[in-house]
Design goal:
The chain has a five-stranded parallel β-sheet, sandwiched between helices. It starts with a strand and ends in a 9-residue tail after the last helix. By secondary structure, the chain is an alpha/beta fold. Helix 4 packs parallel to helix 5. Helix content is about 50%, strand content about 15%. It has a single domain, classed as Methylglyoxal synthase-like domain (Rossmann fold, 3-Layer(aba) Sandwich).
């Protein structure tokens, strides 16, 4: 499955810790991320992470476009609710996921449930809904 990772600045370390804890599960899937988040996760975990542009250079729009085309099967976007300047970002990605029935987590508790479900096969229905679950080419 194709999994997108994004994290606001104050949540990047949490994303790294999360991916470190679940590297065994994530390693069986194709991981994509915005540039800074992706490099931090790859460096800490050894996971193969395909990186888009950084947030400031349009990385969230790149991921948003792939979501709009239903090319991701799971999106983890760790949100910093204290940073209201980024509220539009999380709403934009969340709405795209809702439109395409893509499981979405904006916090570590929900992300954990989704990743554990992924390991159990609870998200295998995405292979039927989205037969393009093979890795994306960037």
């Amino acid at each position: 499955m194709n999994i997108a990772l994004m994290a606001h600045d104050h949540k990047k370390e949490l994303m790294v810790q999360f991916c470190t804890a679940y590297a065994g599960i994530l390693s069986h899937h194709s991981i994509y991320a915005t540039n800074t988040t992706g490099h931090l996760v790859a460096e800490a975990t050894g996971l193969d992470v395909q990186c888009f542009l950084s947030y400031a250079h349009g990385g969230s729009q790149q991921i948003g476009a792939r979501i709009a085309y239903n090319e991701f099967d799971l999106v983890l976007f760790f949100n910093d609710p204290s940073d209201t300047s980024m509220a539009e970002d999380i709403t934009y990605i969340s709405r795209l996921c809702d439109q395409n029935n893509i499981p979405f987590a904006s916090n570590v508790a929900t992300a954990e449930m989704l990743v554990l479900g992924l390991a159990r096969g609870d998200l295998d229905w995405r292979c039927i809904v989205n037969p393009r679950t093979k890795p994306l080419s960037i």
